[in-house]
Amino acid sequence: MSQKSFIEFLVAGRDDPALLARYGSRNLSQLLFHAKNDGFEFTADDMAEVVFKLEMGVIVEKDAEPVDGNSGLWRRMWGRTHLDYLVERVVVRYSDEELRALAPHAESVKEQVR
Q1: DSSP states of the chain as a string?
Q2: Has residue 2 got a pLDDT over 50?
Q3: What is the CA radius of gyration of the chain?
Q4: C-alpha distances in angstroms, 40 versus 11, 44, 78, 95, 113?
Q5: Please, which residues have CB within 8 angstroms of residue 95's CB and are 6 or more apart in sequence?
Q6: How far from the centroid of its chain's Cα atoms is residue 96's Cα?
Q7: What is the mean pLDDT of residues 29-53?
Q8: What is the Cα–Cα distance from 9 to 38, expressed in whole angstroms?
Q9: pTM for the complete prediction?
Q10: Residue 1 pLDDT level (bands cut at 50, 70, 90)
Q11: Confidence band, pLDDT 50/70/90 cuts, at residue 104
Q12: Which of 97, 104, 101, 100 is nearest to 8 (CA)?
């Protein structure tokens, strides 16, 4: 189980709209089960850790906003599924190099994605 695998999953969703659409309506249990069948092995805790790092990076570093209820990032999630929001509003704000830095043991996040 790994945060690296979840980052690879997010990159795969960013690069493959069909994959993102396939997972978009799944609940957490379904997402974990099907992702494992697709070769991505991560836990809900791995997801939570990565999402926290990604969101805080967008708010604090990229948008230079305080972390509070007025952050612009929160308004960008309205009307979207959580996965769509993560990929289309958060992950796309990061380069592949920045994403690799979130999982330091990853050799190449994009190259290891199916």
Answers
A1: --HHHHHHHHHHHHH-HHHHHHHHT--HHHHHHHHHHTT----HHHHHHHHHHHHHIIIIIIS---SSTT-HHHHTTTTS-HHHHIIIIIGGGS-HHHHHHHSTT-S-HHHH--
A2: yes
A3: 14
A4: 11, 12, 27, 21, 9
A5: none
A6: 12
A7: 96
A8: 9
A9: 0.85
A10: low
A11: low
A12: 100
Residue type, 85: Y
CB atoms within 10 A of CB 79: 7
Give the whole-angstrom CA distance, residue 45 versus residue 113: 21
User: For residue 68, what are its two tokens?
Assistant: 């509070």
